[in-house]
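Support request, please re-run this one:
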Amino acid sequence: MKRLLAAALAALLLSLGSLGHAQGQPTASVSGRVVDDQGLPLPGVAVTATSPVLQGSRSATTSGNGDYIVPFLPPGEYLVEYALAGFQKRAEKVRAAAGQTAVRVDVSLKIDAMTETVEVTANAGGSFDRSAAVSTTYSVELVNNLPIGRTPLAAALLAPGTNNNGPSNNMTINGAPSFQNLFVVDGVVAQDNLRNTPANLFIEDAIQETGTTTASISAEYGRFGGGIVNAVTKSGGNTFSGSYRSTLNNDKWTALTPFPNDRRTDKLDVIHEMTFGGPILRDKLWFFASGRHRKQDGTAQTRGTNITYDTGDKESRAQLKLTYSPNAKHTFRISGLEGRRTLKNSSFLSVMDLASLYDEKLPQSFASVGYTAVLRPNFFIEAQASRKGFTFENSGSKSTDPISGTLLVDGITGFRYNAATFCGVCTNEERNNENYIIKGNYFASTSSLGSHNIVGGVDIFRDKRLSNNHQSGSDYRIFTSDTIIRGTDLFPVFDENSFIRYQPILQESLGNDFRTYSAFLNDVWQVNRRLSLSLGVRFDKNDGKDAGGVVVVKDSAISPRASLTFDPTASGDWTLNAGFAKYVTAIANSVAD
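Re-run finished. Output below.
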C-alpha cells in the first residue's frame, strides 16, 4: 500500500507540473434543448443531474435559445430534472457510458395547470445518443452474467467490428492490425511498448464498465488505426460497499499427460478478489480500493530429458482511487494500480535441463491524476497525467561466465540447454510510457445556427523503453549439430554444421525516447433537432531518438474527422449516420528502435 500511495502522489506532482492527461479517463456530457409544447425555446430552465456515481449534483441553466450542457459526468445512470416556474417539472433517466463522450437529450415542458407533475421516462427518444461515433459499452453486471472472461479485452470483443483473429489471437478492430488499437484503463495508456498488446493489469471485480469505439471518433483521440477500448474502474460512493470472490483450481485436475514419470501437485490454488469503497466525506471525498491475489503451484517437464520440476505463478495486485469534489465546479481524481508477479522456474522456448530455468519478476504499475473545472457556465477545462511502468527482472541466465552463461541450442530440435536465454543479471528491461493532455470545452448557443460544443487541446505522449537484449549471459550461443542424451546428462555433438554465434552489445542502451506532440480541435454542431455534425482536425508531430540516442523519427501528419447524424422525425426512433475519418497510428517501437 505504501508503494501504491507513493505512485499516486508521484502522479499528482507530475500532473501539477505538467497539466496533462492520458487520452482521458472518460467522462460524458449531457446536452440538448428545452422547448415548450409549441416548440419554442425556453430560457432559464434549471437542469440538474444526480446519480449514485456523482458527488453531489451537477446543474446548468438553459440559454436564451433553450440550449444547455452538463459536463464531466462519470459513467453511470443519471436522473436529469428540468424545472421552470409556470411549467410542469420533468425528469429523464439517462445513461452516460465510458465510450460515449456526449449524450443528447431534448425535452419539452408543458404549462403547469395548477398541479405539478413529474414525468420519468426510462428510454425516451430524447435520450438517444445522436452521434455518428460507433461505440458500445458493457457494464460489469452484464459481463458477469455472460459465459466469457471477466477481462476488459473479453468485453471489448463483444462489440461489433472486433475480432480476435490477429497474430497470437490478439484483437483486431475494423480489420486494422492488432497493434494499431488503443487500450486505456482509468486514463492510462495500458499497452505493451513493443507489440501494443493490452497489459494484463486489472482487478476484474473493480471494473465498472468497458467501452469500445470503432468509427467516427472525435479528433480528441489519436495514435490508433483501428479503435479505442476504454475501461473504467469504480470510484466508491456515499454508501460503503464491497465484494469478495474466490476462484478455485487444482493442478491435479488437469493431470492428463503422455509422460510416465509425470507427477502433479494435489494442491488447491485460490484466486482472491476483494473490493471496498465508500465516503470519507459525504459528497466530497470518496475512496475505492481493490486487491487480487493469485498463487498457482504446478509442475512441468523438460524436453527430451523429461525432468519434472516445480513451477509457480504468484501475483498480487492492489488499487487505490480517490475522488474529491470540494464543490460542483471542481473535481480531482487520483488512481494507482500496482501488480507484483513472480514466476518460479520460468523458461524461454523449449529447454532440456534445469540450468535453463530462472525465477522471473514482472512488476508493473499504472498511475493517473486528473482535474476538471467549470470556469463559466459555457467554458470548462480538463487536465490529466498518467504513467505506466513495466519491468522484466531476473529474466534470463544467472551468470555471465563464458561456460555457465553460454547458451547451447540443439541443431535438430532447437531445444535449449546449459544456460537460460537472455541475461537475468544484466540491466533490467523497462517498458514505460507517459501521457499528458490539457483541453478546454466551449459551449456556444445561437438563435439561428444551433449549438456548438467545441473542444480543443494539446496532447503529449512519450514511449520509453530500455532494453539491452542480451541473447545469453555471456553473449555467446553455440549451435550444435546434435545432442546425445544419457538420462539427464547432455552431451553436445560438434561437426562441420556446428557454429558459434557471438553477439556482444558494444554500446549499452540509453533507452529510447519517442515523443508525439499533438493538437486537436473538434466541434459538435447541433444544427437543429434533426441534424448534427461533428467536424474536427488533429495534428500529430513525432520526434524520437532510438536506444543509441540517434534521431530516427521526425515527421508529422494531419488527420481530419467529419461525421453527421440525421434524425428525420426528431424523436430518436431511428437515425442516419455517416462519417469520414483519417487516423494516424502510434510510432512502431519495434521498427523505430
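Confidence is low (pLDDT under 50) at residues 4-22, 121-129. The helical segments are 2-18, 140-144, 152-156, 589-592.
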